[in-house]
Design goal:
This protein is an all-alpha fold and about 525 residues long. Helices cover about 80% and strands about 0% of the residues. The chain is elongated, with a radius of gyration of 43 Å.
């Protein structure tokens, strides 16, 4: 019975896993359709999936990312950010930056449509911080820069608008795709036009116009509207041609504003009034203010001072409202504060990283010091044991020779042991002997380590054990360098030779003597 339950449970897990893998594969395929802007087909595929039936957190986050993006592309009304927040929270948790930046873009769009520019700006800055790290694809990076350019153009932050317009166009050129290049050009001409640089704006318009007919039809309207508004005062006929193309596709408030301006220039004021009324249906307060200003100018020209006065009051109230909201939102300040916080966070991360590296290096140095210290102790202990055994065997040999047993087998064995111990001692003292011979041959200690000094002293102990013992017993805690210094003096080296061998000055020679003398034990 238990075996049956276990097998059924295992089978259930396998089936659930397969179902999740199948759904994820389905979502990946749907996502690939959107690359070719097959939005209607994407929506059809998404509608086959019931979100309430999705048990896997990753699949649910991916589903809402695709669903919200498709709703945006199909111009559907999105009431809240609740669904896209599911995606953002999950992608944050698993650090899936490419999908996270796409989710932030979708959320920024929702806020922008509801005229919540503060939260839109925050979402775009979050997305930009990911783009700066190079953790997303070029089309996504373009969308981030283009949206930031559009936002800053809208709130008339001209320097920021041109900054992001340039970044958007640079990214578009790297993509080498007509749609992104055209949007990048449009962003540049709007930015330059707001800066009053008409020649630069005209340059980008002329570069953009040949690209428009290659764009998807539903993307062309904004280009026609913007070009018409730019050229209408110089060539009303050309503006009308572009606006006519926009009307054939799907006119909007900007199209009506452009038509109103064309009608005014053609002295068709009644038609212009009709277009202004349509344009005023927009929810964009900035566009509303421009339309009201155009109406006011026309009413003043007609001598309709009563309506002009009423329009003027609406303009003042609307501009006051916009200015108050801008002061409250302080979107420029928000962007600057966000970047400052990001810089501080980066600096903190770097500081923590440097501290971690320093701690690791310190621990490594400590570990190496401990290792070499104990290795040195072990070496000294082994050398001491070898020395004691050597002395013991040599003493035994001496006694046996005195007893007349020089030719016995025991003597032969002891002689062999003495020979082996002498070879072992020479091996242990090899580095010390090499260092000692190096100095005797005119070398220096410039490249010596602490162990080199210690090994050289151990080797010298064989030559003059009494002197080394004297320095260790009659002085307090002399370092290997100080003991080596006294050995050199004991060998009769002059001050000039001491300076050359140890790479020290005459002052240091005198200082060493003084410090060594101060450590002499009292009798």
């Amino acid at each position: 019975m238990k075996t049956t339950v276990f097998l059924l449970f295992t089978l259930l897990i396998i089936l659930l896993g397969c179902q999740q893998d199948s759904l994820m594969q389905q979502l990946v395929e749907i996502d690939s359709l959107s690359v070719n802007r097959e939005d209607e087909r994407v929506m059809q595929e998404l509608e086959k999936i019931a979100p309430e039936s999705i048990d896997d957190e990753e699949c649910l986050a991916y589903y809402w990312l695709l669903k919200i993006r498709t709703d945006i592309r199909l111009n559907k009304t999105i009431e809240s950010t609740q669904a896209i927040d599911i995606s953002i929270n999950y992608f944050k948790k698993v650090n899936d930056k490419p999908k996270l930046v796409r989710a932030y873009l979708n959320k920024a769009y929702i806020f922008n449509k509801s005229d919540d520019l503060t939260n839109a700006a925050l979402c775009l800055k979050e997305a930009e911080s990911i783009v700066k790290d190079g953790d997303c694809e070029l089309p996504t990076a373009f969308r981030v820069y283009h949206n930031l350019a559009t936002l800053n153009n809208k709130i008339k932050e001209k320097d920021l608008a041109i900054k992001y317009s340039k970044l958007a166009l640079k990214t578009a050129y790297r993509l080498n795709h007509d749609l992104e290049i055209a949007y990048g050009m449009m962003s540049m001409w709007i930015s330059y036009n707001r800066l009053g640089k008409k020649d630069s704006a005209k340059y980008y318009i002329n570069k953009c116009i040949p690209l428009i007919e290659n764009l998807p039809k539903n993307k062309r309207v904004s280009f026609y509207d913007n070009i018409a508004s730019f050229v209408v005062d110089d060539d009303v006929h050309q503006a009308e041609q572009f606006l006519k193309k926009a009307i054939e596709i799907k006119p909007n408030a900007y199209t009506y504003r452009g038509l109103a301006r064309a009608y005014i220039l053609n002295d068709e004021r009644e038609k212009a009034k009709t277009m202004w009324e349509k344009a005023l249906q927009t929810s964009d307060p900035y566009l509303k203010a421009e339309v009201l200003q155009a109406m006011y100018d026309s009413q003043q020209e007609e001598g309709d001072y009563k309506n002009a006065s009423e329009t003027a009051m609406k303009i003042v109230a609307l501009k006051d409202s916009i200015a108050q909201k801008q002061r409250e939102d302080d979107i420029r300040g928000l962007q600057e504060r966000f970047e400052k916080e990001q810089e501080l966070a980066t600096e903190r991360y770097k500081a923590e990283m440097y501290i971690s590296i320093a701690c690791c290096l310190l621990l490594l140095a400590l570990a190496l010091a401990v290792y070499f210290y104990y290795r040195n102790l072990k070496g000294k202990a082994e050398l001491l044991k070898t020395k004691e055994n050597l002395e013991k065997y040599q003493q035994q040999l001496k006694l046996m020779e005195q007893e007349g047993k020089g030719d016995s087998k025991a003597v032969e064995q002891l002689t062999q042991k003495v020979s082996e111990l002498q070879q072992k001692r020479n091996s242990l003292l090899q580095n010390g002997r090499e260092r000692y011979e190096e100095i005797m041959a005119g070398g220096t200690t410039i490249r010596w380590s602490r162990n080199d000094f210690a090994d050289c002293i151990e080797y010298y102990r064989i030559i003059d054990a009494d002197f080394v013992a004297h320095m260790e017993l009659d002085y307090k805690h002399l370092s290997p360098k100080y003991i080596f210094f006294t050995i050199l003096e004991h060998l009769g080296k002059s001050d000039e030779e001491l300076q050359r061998i140890m790479a020290i000055s005459q002052t240091t020679v005198r200082s060493n003597r003084s410090r060594i003398n101060k450590r002499k034990r009292d009798d």
